[in-house]
Specification:
Layout: H1 2-17, H2 41-46, H3 53-62, E1 73-80, H4 85-95, H5 99-116, E2 123-126, H6 131-137, H7 141-153, E3 162-164, H8 176-182, E4 187-189, E5 200-208, H9 212-223, E6 228-237
Parallel strand pairs: 1-6, 2-5, 5-6
Antiparallel strand pairs: 3-4
Helix pairs in contact: 4-5, 5-7
Bound molecules: zinc ion (ZN).
Residues 22, 24-25, 27, 39-40, 42-43 line the site of zinc ion.
Length: 238
């Protein structure tokens, strides 16, 4: 009996904690069977599948000279066109303070990676944002995604291994070459940098656009002694 009461209380609390409407389509969220807290199952199922990891890697390779590419493989969960509803999700994740959305999607990334197999990873590193931006937003969205992946794959996150030492301009309006210049020497090792020596690293971010930021991070990680850097992002901009 007591257990049932506790269960009811817990369910009510969960109901209170969960929002009433889907972040993408605004449908009322009532079913407890849905996979995510903030997105309805229909929206989740309608998200566009990304190009295969091979195609993604080819796309990345075209943006860098062979010697400059520090990333071994790349995985994205969703293809995001500029006007697609998923962009609304990305916006919420970044600017509306809905950090739980990142964890939800991170878990989905983890499940998909597990399903694809060959998860040979030791540590997860979220792409760092400048501490001034963390102050603005309250959290780093890449860190929330990394947290979800970490829960599913049972791989630790090391958020102090890499730091962003410069406050960079927003990359949104820059060309591929400008993006590459914008992030040169932006990252350096942090207090936990020794934790990545000889490790297979999974580098995590919200969007893969040209890969300039991701590759800059990966280069620094290899310089710090990482064995290999694979990348996972929530979305790939197409
Ligand atoms: Zn929806």
């Amino acid at each position: 009996m007591k257990l049932q009461v506790l269960q009811t209380v817990l369910n009510s609390l969960r109901e209170l904690a969960s929002p009433l409407h889907c972040e993408v389509c605004s449908t009322y969220l009532s079913k407890r069977t849905r996979r995510m807290l903030y997105v309805c199952d229909a929206c989740l199922d309608s998200l566009e599948a990304p190009p295969s990891p091979n195609e993604l890697f080819n796309r990345l390779s075209r943006n860098f000279a062979q010697d400059d590419l520090s990333i071994s493989s790349i995985f994205s969960l969703i293809a995001a066109e500029h006007s697609a509803p998923i962009m609304e999700v990305m916006y919420s994740l970044k600017y509306r303070g809905i950090s739980r959305l990142g964890v939800d999607f991170g878990r989905e990334i983890g499940e998909t990676m597990k399903h694809l197999g060959n998860v040979n990873l030791d540590v997860i590193i979220p792409v760092p944002i400048h501490h001034a931006r963390v102050r603005e937003r309250g959290y780093n969205q890449a860190e929330r995604i990394a947290f979800g992946i970490s829960q599913v794959l049972s791989i630790p996150i090391e958020k102090d291994a890499l730091v962003r030492s410069r406050y960079t301009l927003s990359q949104t309006k820059l060309s591929a070459i400008e993006r590459e210049k914008n992030v040169v020497d932006v990252f350096r090792g942090g207090t936990a940098k020794s934790k990545i020596i000889n490790k297979n690293v999974l580098l995590v971010d919200d969007v893969f656009t040209t890969g300039a930021t991701l590759n800059s991070c990966a280069t620094t990680l290899l310089e710090l002694g990482a064995k290999k850097v694979d990348v996972a992002t929530l979305a790939v901009a197409i």
